[in-house]
Amino acid sequence: MLRREKGFTLIELLIVIAIIGILAAIAIPMYKTQTIKAKLTEVTNGMSNVASGVAAYYRENNAFSTSMGGVAGIQTTMGASLVALTRLQSMQVAANGVITAVVTNIDTNTVDNKDLVLTPSTSAQDGSIGWQWSGTCPPAFIPKR
Fold first, then answer.
1. Average confidence (pLDDT) over 11-32
2. I want to staple 91 with a disulfide (CB 3.0 to 4.6 A). Which of 43, 49, 80, 101 is the partner?
């Protein structure tokens, strides 16, 4: 009478290890990308707050404010609090309403020392303002709207 051995064969174990390796090769880069996007949210939210101030100034004066250099100038003129932003190296608002922020403390190889730009476009019909994201960050990390 033959007795059947219990356990896994070497082939079965190698197949499981290969599957785990393939899943890890896909998941780790996706995790890194999502982590960078989550950290960039702090900068994009700060820029959106400044954009609200720029839009309010435009609605009241029918023109964009003069150029504001640095975080202190933006806080004084627009009232947007940017003190707690640890991932923001610098931010400026140009005379045409363009908001430029330089990113830091996120990922040295990908987005640090790159900029995000928020450009306004005004409608001649109703005076509304639309915003367009751009910058030197890789396209995967620039917000879509």
1. 95
2. 101
Spatial separation of the C-alpha atoms in residues 145 and 70, rounded to whole Å: 24
Under 8 Å between Cβ of 119 and 137: no
pLDDT band at residue 145 using 50, 70 and 90 as cut-offs: confident
Domains of the chain (ranges, CATH numbers): 10-141 (3.30.700)
Which residue in the block uniquely carries the two structure tokens 């150029």? 67
Among candidates 66, 109, 111, 74, which has minimal Cα distance to 90?
74
Across 15-142, the runs of DSSP E, i.e. the strands, are 68-69, 88-93, 99-103, 115-122, 129-135
Whole-number Å distance between alpha carbons of 98 and 100: 6
Element (DSSP H or E) covering residue 142: none
Is residue 128 within 8 Å of 121, Cβ to Cβ? no
Cα-based distances in Å from 14 to 5, 21, 23, 139: 19, 10, 14, 38
